[in-house]
Amino acid sequence: MTGMDGVEIRDDRDAGRLEAVAGGEVLGRIKYFVLDDPAHALVPVHTVVEPAHEGKGIAGSLARELYALAAREGTVVAPLCPYVVRWAARHPEEAPPADPDVLRAAKRWLAEHPERF
């Protein structure tokens, strides 16, 4: 997806990163993993925007695209990242709440794989 001022948002599923890129430079990213059980879900864990690019709407664009990506794939987002949790609360029309069982499973997975993040 290409949006604001030539910023492209691309999904690097293998690395678990949704990245905002412009001019070959990564401006920000959401680090996530894919949960398979009890349901397929994208689980954002950490959002980072490079200091020189803070305050430009990059984190919000990343969160919006993560939810849009999940919707296109027919899956859900189970946010563990505090920023994505806050963004979702402000945008309920774009960010349906995650099933509590899926959130619990995501937290369990993260606790069992601390080396990932």
TrEMBL record:
Matching Pfam families: Acetyltransf_CG (PF14542)
Entry-linked SUPFAM superfamilies: Acyl-CoA N-acyltransferases (Nat) (SSF55729)
Domain N-acetyltransferase: 10-99
PANTHER family tied to this protein: BSR4717 PROTEIN, PROTEIN NATD1
Name recorded for this polypeptide: GNAT family N-acetyltransferase
Lineage: Bacteria, Bacillati, Actinomycetota, Actinomycetes, Kitasatosporales
